Amino acid sequence: MSGLRWTGLCAAVGTLTFVAGLSPRLVRSLNVRRAAAAVATSGHTVGAVTTPAPIVVEFGDYECSPCAAADTAMARLLSKWRFVLRFHYLPSERDHPYAFEAAVAAECAATQNRFEPMHHLLFRRRADFGAVSWAMLAAAAGVFDTTAFTACMDGDAAARVVVGDIAMGRLLRLRQTPAFLLGSAVYYGVPQDSTIERYVRDHQP
Question: Domain 2-202 belongs to what architecture?
Fold first, then answer.
């Protein structure tokens, strides 16, 4: 799995726009807009709300303590206001040695329609990373076929999704996690209630 991280990242970046004759700044501006639009319509939906509704995009890391706090906060906010939360992976392997594998584990759980339970469980049990197998964590999240889950962990498909998210996060120049995209604005850390409330209120369809 780890061998494709660099090649997968290059492939993901390679899907963006490179146009001869345009200035690097303009090309980057085109790519950022394209990336922002892409992450708002992809990733995993957390919560029961579906579009049309205001879209909040989150980039997170399962070993990140502020991300765990943000997960708790967003669950509460989703119960109060109607919006769609799209989650994308942005693991920091430099600081968090298990973050990439945790993201792959979440993606593999998603293949059995257990993304959201696994997503919340990974934040709650991040202290168990390295001591408890990913398959055991998946089973605790309700993944019924742990053999297929383990095969997914050993394969490349889920890892490609993670490296694609990393590529988008880098293109958007996200500096840390959690990072929230509210339209064209980027917010870092646990979002304040008033920030989400104002955005949701102002962007109702």
Answer: 3-Layer(aba) Sandwich (3.40)
